User: Fold this.
Amino acid sequence: MQEIAMTILDIIQNSLRAQAMQIQLWIKDSIKDNMIHIEICDNGCGMSLETLQQVTNPFFTTRTTRSIGLGIPLFKESVEATGGSFQIDSRLQKGTKIIGEYVKNHIDTPPMGNLVDTMITCIQFDAKVNYCFHYQNDDWAFDMNTEDVKALLDDVPINQPEIILWLKDYIKEGMHQ
Amino acid sequence: MKSLDELKKIREQAKERMAVRGQEGQEYRVVVGMATCGIAAGARPVLNTFVQEVAKEHLPVTVMQTGCIGMCALEPIVEVFDKDNQKTTYVLIDEKKAKDIVLRHLMHGEVIDEYTVGHYSK
Ligand SMILES: Nc1ncnc2c1ncn2[C@@H]1O[C@H](COP(=O)(O)OP(=O)(O)OP(=O)(O)O)[C@@H](O)[C@H]1O
Ligand code: FES
Ligand SMILES: [Mg+2]
Assistant:
């Protein structure tokens, strides 16, 4: 993956396919601490211990259209190639938590890329899912909870194209772009 | 700084458009493949191009995400379903081609042959 933001989107696609209704994305991007910390937490169907042990192996997938799953192994390899650390924790019926921490100044650390597009793509997927986004760097932070947005929307689904377009500008401003 | 309160205005506009879309019915369903291979090949900007153009042009079109479509080498893949559920599969799509599909297929009902999977597998 060319961007960390694309990897995040891919990991969240797993959560969505696991029927998660609540997804948390927590990012700390710090020059001071020389790290990029990514944490994705969902309340989806979770994985059994057996699945969990196989999931970082690229020859494992539960989908039927292709015999290998790439998302999680790619994330793990990409983080570890920078000397960083990767962690995955999951419980059946409870959910899954994935943490990847890149060493920021390592030559193999991908650029952060377009987090704004990743967030609105997540929101676009299904109006019923809720997100908690948190981003911080050494100078500022951005927080958004889709439940706060929905409270203002009456019956209009949050993923109506007009709403998505407005949210994109809103998040862009929040992300200092 | 934009405040969330501004959303109330947009909400009313969205309601009107939804009502229009409801009356006229959905003309098309656009489905973008968002498996790992799709995302790596550039599916995110393709999806967002469709969302943006549908909003701008007020099109009676639903944009959806799906997982694997089964042809990694041809990602990003976009499927367009018409009212009768007839499917057109477009492959190797980028932002520019997505805009062409909006203009020619979604707005004028023309299938763009040279972007279809049939064209590539010939
Ligand atoms: N958040 C999650 N909750 C429950 N199960 C998960 C979650 N993430 C991954 N899995 C399980 O692990 C498997 C492997 O995930 P991975 O992302 O590596 O590959 P994939 O999603 O199957 O395919 P790809 O990502 O290449 O499109 C999935 O098929 C799914 O069964
Ligand atoms: S995983 Fe690539 S098209 Fe299915
Ligand atoms: Mg995956």
Q: What stands out?
A: The pocket of FE2/S2 (inorganic) cluster (ligand 2) is lined by residues A 65-66; B 33, 35, 37, 68-72, 75 (CB under 6 Å). Chain B has five helices and four strands.
